[in-house]
Amino acid sequence: MSIMESDKEDLSRAEVLNVNNNAWESVINIEEEVSNKKSPKEVVEFSRKAFTAGKTKSLKFRKAQLKGLLKFLEECKGDIEKALYKDLRKHKQECHMCETEVVANDLRHTIMEVAKWANPQKPQKRLVNLLDGVYRYNDPYGVVLIIGAWNYPILLTLGPLVGALAAGNSIILKPSELAPATANLLAKALTKYLDKDCFQVFLGGVEETSELLKEKFDYIFFTGSTTVGRIIYQAAAKHLTPTTLELGGKSPAYIDESVDMKKAAKRILWGKLINSGQTCVAPDYVLCNKEVQDKFLQHAQKIITEFYGRDPMESPHLGKIITERHFKRLVEFINPENVAIGGKYNSSARIISPTILINVSPDDPVMTEEIFGPILPIIIIKNAEEAIHFINAREKPLALYIFAKDKSIQNLFLNNTSSGGVAINDTVTHLITENLPFGGVGESGMGSYHGKEGFETFSHQKSVLVKDLTDLTEMTLSVRYPPYSDIKISVLNFLLKKRGGVSFGFLKNCLIFSAGIACAYSLQYIVKKMESSN
Ligand code: NAD
């Protein structure tokens, strides 16, 4: 199919989805024209110069950048929808619900809170520091590299950007080359809304990213596969650059006998099928017993028809698979002998119908790598204990889903498994719940972000202790100087001892200690006065 024909086809699909056609033309142009104007070395040097000049540090500047990003999301909504449609055949509702609005809400929250977060924090003080200033300063790291992923190319590229801007860094954004329309839109349009010295977009794939990674950054934030995560971590280690890795893996969904199956099946299938299964926290596979599987299948067919009509391949609500390579990889997972529902696909459109596989062995390819597509295998286990054993025998997942009415079953999983996050009786939405950090553990990643965690991720917490130079302070310090003695050891122990809550006895000791210091200080003062008058 020629470029013109495929554009026409996309345009007619866009009309079906009722996206804003006025902006369509600009997406096509952006895709054809944008290229990097600077080498990796120049990009990093430019960014460092801007950071060193101190421009990013003021609260006013940070807020202006955050507001600029919000304005981009609002004013370029039509362009964004079209770019996401072009890259992933993403429906307008999914663009809104899973990409732009999530970032916009994080931005609104951050704009409201950033002044509070950026203020130096005053932690609780111990007796030894009663006369001192004790602070935690939040320093921006400096030059930050954010490498985004293609599956949610707005959410996973601009989401980390919120925290990085709020923390006052100078930023280089590398969107995924596999979502080129969105990457080009960001390069062309977003740069108009943010400060050009302190924010740059660098485009490219493996080769360009590898070159970029040779440079020294002050922080690297990567979203992508565990395999590439290892490469990023090694490159970062050369410069001892702190790194957040948001990776993938196989996220299980356990279904207990106690659930309302209609609701459970709907919530699992929604989480599995949004973005055609190309979601890092999609339930990768189901664990349940044979009776539960039978009930699940009875409901699943009806739900899939309700979601996508009789022929999901014709539905404008089902996205496409990002590349031919990923499409082929997914199709190979579909062993016709295991298909309980679906199993159809269209190679030219790269669409796969929602597919459920049964009688799957843990050693089958579909169970040995992350699926990342609309295919859901079911693994039969006897009970919750066996499900926990199955989960713990594998790498720690990014998400764990527990569908159970029974609280003791919920707690059994919570207390005996480790995962990046957990949702009970739902899928995916823990990721967009305000005030919950998002991130993996073990092979599913390290570090987290969203809201305050995003700000903290991109800030170095600098410990600051302020002492004055008065005689009183100097006197309290005298116990640490040589010559050492047993009395000094006792006083130091008293001052340094970690205490729980402030008890009456402790307050009494404090008063006696303060009175002692005051007496000693007055005595010293009187002695000096008398000496000078003689
Ligand atoms: P990927 O790791 O293949 O690629 C990510 C980016 O890294 C690419 O765009 C490319 O620019 C760069 N890259 C690839 N190979 C490289 C190399 N050898 N050297 C240097 N740079 C290289 O990931 P992907 O295919 O874009 O995304 C899918 C994976 O990401 C899945 O495993 C998914 O679970 C995971 N993911 C995780 C999250 C999360 O938030 N935890 C979100 C989305 C996706």
Automatic annotation (TrEMBL):
Q: Does the keyword Transmembrane apply?
A: yes
Q: Which GO terms describe its cellular component?
A: cytoplasm
Catalytic site positions: E246, C280
Q: Which UniProt keywords apply?
A: Membrane, NAD, Oxidoreductase, Transmembrane, Transmembrane helix
**What molecular functions are annotated in GO for this chain?**
aldehyde dehydrogenase (NAD+) activity
- Annotated Aldehyde dehydrogenase domain ranges read 34-464
Tell me which domain of life the UniProt entry assigns to the organism this sequence originates from. Eukaryota
Q: GO annotations under biological process? A: aldehyde metabolic process
Q: Which PANTHER family match?
A: ALDEHYDE DEHYDROGENASE, ALDEHYDE DEHYDROGENASE TYPE III, ISOFORM Q
Q: Which family does it belong to?
A: Belongs to the aldehyde dehydrogenase family.
Kindly provide the name given to this protein in its UniProt entry: Aldehyde dehydrogenase
